[in-house]
Design a protein that fits this description.
Layout: E1 2-10, H1 16-25, E2 29-38, E3 43-51, H2 57-71, E4 74-78, E5 88-93, H3 98-108, E6 115-121, H4 127-132, E7 137-139, H5 149-158, E8 163-166, H6 175-180, E9 186-190, H7 202-208, E10 213-220, E11 231-238, H8 245-269, E12 273-276, E13 279-282
């Protein structure tokens, strides 16, 4: 069984040793390990991917929880195989209703073999969709839309979430949050073709460049924003010369972006791909 361990907390000495020593002492085969030590933030973070017999998962969780208490680290132990047939999704949204609605419809129609565990929003715009599909709604937004990032992590833990879907969620996750759910568990929809059109206004940027092909990108989120290519899926559409920008944006938002997100999430849920050392690799 593949097991992902993440540990995040205040920086100190010899924080990784107890975790690594325990895992290797259990006979674990370490497939991937990453560590982060940022002096300015005084933050330590680690992600380890190992292989162990499935019968040891509960014991590993209990033991690493105790190590976390001793080292004052927030430790999470997760396996994509534990609920492989129906992983639990947290759908995070801000303003746009089309991407989360597409995910919920895909679950309802059997396109996505997963369960919507919770919907999270920093704005109330998508609450009605959650109620329509009988999915618990959790608000994490301040009055000005700023997100309570620690509250978000508490909710993800509370609902026992496997994958976090940022369905046009218009807030940047802090590094600590990314590390807590590292290992290919956070999936984002960007409304432009990466790497050519990053930023908040990819449609406008592509239009200014007189592009005729527009698109969206579904990708894994990693703590380092410039770590490289984490693309899961890209979907494009072509427009005729002279089409107005408003119409291009409408086509992208109402059709292309939701379609891109659903296919990207499907590839992860069906375990066709996974994130490995900041690269997306095929499993099938």
């Amino acid at each position: 069984m593949q097991i992902v361990v993440t540990a995040v907390g205040p920086d100190n000495v010899r924080l990784a040793d107890p975790i690594i020593h325990y895992l290797t002492g259990q006979g674990a085969n370490i497939a991937e390990i990453q560590m982060y030590d940022h002096d300015e933030e005084a933050l330590f973070a680690m992600m380890v991917r190992v292989h162990l017999p499935s019968a040891q998962l509960s014991e590993v969780r209990s033991a690493l929880s105790e190590i976390g208490k001793e080292t004052k680290l927030s430790v999470r132990v997760w396996s994509p195989e534990e609920r492989a047939s129906r992983p639990r999704l947290a759908i995070c949204a801000t303003y746009r209703t089309e991407p989360p609605l597409a995910i919920l419809r895909a679950i309802r129609d059997g396109v996505l073999k997963a369960d919507a565990a919770v919907m999270i929003g920093n704005r109330p715009n998508c609450r009605g969709i959650a109620e329509q599909f009988d999915v618990p709604w959790e608000s994490i937004g301040e009055n000005d839309g700023r997100a309570k990032d620690d509250r978000m992590i508490d909710i993800l833990d509370q609902y026992n979430v496997d994958y976090v879907i940022l369905a046009r969620y218009m807030r940047v996750l802090p590094a600590g949050s990314c590390w807590k759910y590292a290992g290919g568990r956070i999936i984002n929809l960007h409304h432009g073709l990466l790497p050519s059109f990053p930023g908040l206004r990819p449609y406008h940027d592509a239009y200014a460049g007189r592009m005729l092909t527009y698109g969206a990108t579904c990708h894994f989120i990693v703590p380092e924003l410039d770590a490289g290519n984490q693309t899961i899926h890209q979907s494009t559409f072509t427009v005729p010369p002279g089409m107005k920008l408003d119409e291009i944006i409408r086509i992208g938002q109402e059709d292309n972006e939701p379609r891109c997100l659903v296919e990207g999430v499907r590839r992860v849920v069906d375990r066709e791909v996974q994130l490995h050392f900041h690269r997306v690799i095929a499993l099938k």
